[in-house]
Design brief:
192 residues, mainly alpha, 10 helices, globular
């Protein structure tokens, strides 16, 4: 079925990009993600078939290469396409990265305004979903960074058990001095 070849090639490259990224092979991940994006662009894949997943890998790789401005530009493009194509989960994932970047340059109020906008978007999203979990994750990270541990702990109790949530809990515990080094290692290794 030659008509499916571009679609399959896209997914093979997107999956390879994600795998390579998680293994720390950032150059290989960037190359596979770029190939996937090119395939998607040439075949006009949009919406749920669009290349947002591969573009996120590109942006994350650019961040690893310390090409922050380029990384932010790709994240902003993905965020805009996420809204345009009604791909709210991708929008929320990418917005979390961008809000962390905003916070890193000292724009605390702007970053929390972004969280408020995310909550409005999720509240107006049709149907039952768990998109608020992505917003909680984004807010938890920001709360820990500004040392608002009371709110961070409330949010941590709402997050599902996961490696990412566990890491945030360890970070919060470390920052308030409640976990010693060996306890942090034990908690990071729990269930994963």
């Amino acid at each position: 079925a030659p008509e499916f070849a571009p679609f399959l090639n896209y997914h093979i490259n997107a999956i390879k990009a994600m795998r390579d990224f998680t293994q720390g092979a950032y150059f290989d991940a960037y190359e596979a993600a770029s190939t996937a994006v090119t395939i998607a662009d040439l075949n006009q894949f949009v919406g749920i078939s669009g290349s947002l997943d591969a573009q996120i890998v590109q942006a994350r790789c650019l961040s690893e290469f310390l090409r922050t401005k380029e990384s932010v530009a790709v994240f902003e493009m993905v965020r805009a396409k996420g809204l345009e194509w009604n791909q709210t989960p991708w929008y929320l994932v990418v917005d979390g990265y961008l809000l962390r970047e905003v916070l890193s340059v000292g724009q605390v109020e702007q970053s929390f305004e972004g969280i408020r906008k995310e909550r409005e978007l999720v509240q107006n999203f049709p149907g039952k979903n768990n998109l608020d979990t992505l917003v909680d994750f984004n807010e938890t990270f920001l709360r820990i960074k500004v040392r608002d541990f009371d709110r961070a702990n409330i949010l941590l109790t709402r997050l599902p058990e996961s490696l990412s949530a566990n890491r945030l809990g360890v970070l919060a515990g470390h920052m308030v001095g409640k976990l010693n080094y060996s306890e942090r290692i034990d908690r990071l290794n729990t269930h994963y």
